[in-house]
């Protein structure tokens, strides 16, 4: 398996930071030009709102539609590289593919054990690369509320061209990537009512050369089959959505005349996409 060739982390991060700053400055300059023109045409004094003409409003929408998702993804790679020792940001070229920005995990003194590549910078095939060494397994939890698990069987080299089909040039390999992220959203509470959101869950299973499907992707809120009893007891369970209503408490003094048990609803909505099958939806 060919290793990536990461540049010095400080150099690459500096280059990426300058590119992101240049992007923000260029878009900011264009927006300023549009607003300056609208103000001059309206002839409004300072402190007065100048409505944007239709053609200017259309130009503003075109300026941010679509947003520069690639820069945001590269920014995410940079932030992840800073979350735990052993990560490096680099670059990689594959025949026929756009040049990649890569995030590799390579503990000191070891070759790259896991690499994510985003092919987005030049002409050529755009897409995602996932590489992992045989037997690699690690859980990353360097950021609060974020957990990433990677496990590989066989040397993995999975490629997903956007608009195409995921594939691997290696004859037999399997890769699991699971991501759980708890959004920083506090539970909402009122008298007699509580509402909470669980973690976002993504699980990708890739397999080649065996009886398992080529890919299985699970995306949902919370963990499927969350323990309803645990949620009802008020424990911090893995449910995606948990709502509790206590009618007696909500009615205050009138609640003393009611004998109504609290109502708890627990759901973990999810979708499963498997090779050769229709998507399956669930609320378990």
UniProtKB/TrEMBL annotation:
This is Uncharacterized protein.
């Amino acid at each position: 398996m060919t290793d990536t060739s990461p540049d010095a982390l400080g150099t690459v991060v500096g280059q990426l930071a300058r590119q992101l700053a240049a992007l923000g400055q260029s878009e900011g300059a264009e927006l300023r030009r549009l607003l300056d023109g609208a103000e001059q045409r309206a002839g409004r004094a300072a402190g007065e709102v100048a409505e944007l003409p239709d053609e200017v409003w259309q130009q503003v929408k075109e300026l941010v539609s679509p947003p520069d998702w690639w820069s945001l993804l590269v920014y995410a790679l940079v932030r992840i590289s800073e979350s735990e020792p052993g990560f490096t940001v680099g670059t990689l070229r594959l025949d026929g593919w756009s040049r990649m920005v890569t995030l590799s995990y390579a503990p000191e003194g070891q070759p790259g054990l896991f690499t994510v590549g985003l092919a987005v910078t030049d002409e050529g095939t755009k897409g995602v690369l996932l590489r992992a060494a045989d037997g690699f397994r690690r859980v990353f939890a360097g950021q609060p509320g974020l957990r990433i698990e990677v496990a590989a069987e066989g040397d993995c080299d999975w490629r997903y061209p956007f608009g195409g089909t995921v594939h691997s040039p290696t004859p037999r390999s399997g890769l699991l990537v699971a991501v759980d992220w708890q959004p920083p959203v506090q539970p909402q509470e009122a008298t007699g009512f509580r509402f909470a959101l669980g973690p976002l869950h993504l699980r990708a299973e890739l397999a080649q050369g065996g009886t398992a499907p080529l890919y299985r992707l699970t995306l949902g809120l919370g963990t499927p089959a969350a323990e309803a009893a645990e949620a009802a007891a008020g424990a911090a369970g893995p449910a995606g959505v948990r709502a509790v209503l206590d009618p007696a408490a909500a009615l205050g003094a009138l609640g003393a005349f009611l004998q109504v048990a609290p109502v708890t609803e627990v759901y973990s909505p999810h979708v499963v996409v498997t090779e050769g099958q229709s998507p399956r939806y669930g609320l378990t």
